[in-house]
Amino acid sequence: MIKNVILILPFIVLLACQKNSFKMTTTPNPIPVVKPEDEISYLAIGDSYTIGEAVPLESSFPYQLVKELQKTDMQLSKPHIIAKTGWTTSELQEGINHANLRQKFSMVTLLIGVNNQYRGESKEKYRKEFKELLQAAITFADGNKAHVFVVSIPDWGLTPYGMGSGRETLAVSADIDAFNAINKQESLAEGISYTDITAASRLVVSDPELVAADGLHPSSKMYLDWVVQLAPVVIKKIK
């Protein structure tokens, strides 16, 4: 009996080894992990329209843009934002200098100028400082102009706040168009993508849901409209 047990043991050991070997060969491959260096980094610079005044930060157009791009399997980190309500071009320049960013980004968006128009600053000053901000955006994009995206200035004059401001709405619209003519001209001269959301911003006269609760700034819905226009452009240039 003992002899038979001794003879059987080697077979049991052999079967156990084979079983363990089978388990090892059928272990599934680990799920690929996206490394930080594979992520698309995003810098958004501007004013209240970039920071998303009067809506949750996640509803601002940079955050909604990231969410939209992620639907295409693009791996984006959350946007880094340099923007503040009320900033003009010169104040944005100061904000950038104060931020002292050394990092380069995979993509940069720039939307600035409404407060230059609102305060009655000269268009010559705006042109000069906008050109400087374009160069700053290009530098942040590590010199890649194809990864810089300019967004036009929306028309605040047709919002409830604008209509009650005492300013003539047609004059505001004409002035906004003049400032946008400058930023478009300078963007295209540099070979930089330009997305015109101004016409869409004027739909507030027929759709009150496009305006935030403060009666002035865009709602989440309007920001999404901007994203729908901007996302295909970004995908074409980045992906």
From TrEMBL:
Gene3D superfamilies: SGNH hydrolase
Domain named SGNH hydrolase-type esterase: residues: 44-223
Superkingdom to which the source organism belongs: Bacteria
An example molecular function term from Gene Ontology annotations: hydrolase activity, acting on ester bonds
UniProt cross-references to InterPro entries, sorted A to Z: SGNH_hydro, SGNH_hydro_sf
UniProt name for this protein: Lysophospholipase L1
Originating species: Pedobacter caeni
Organism classification: Bacteria, Pseudomonadati, Bacteroidota, Sphingobacteriia, Sphingobacteriales
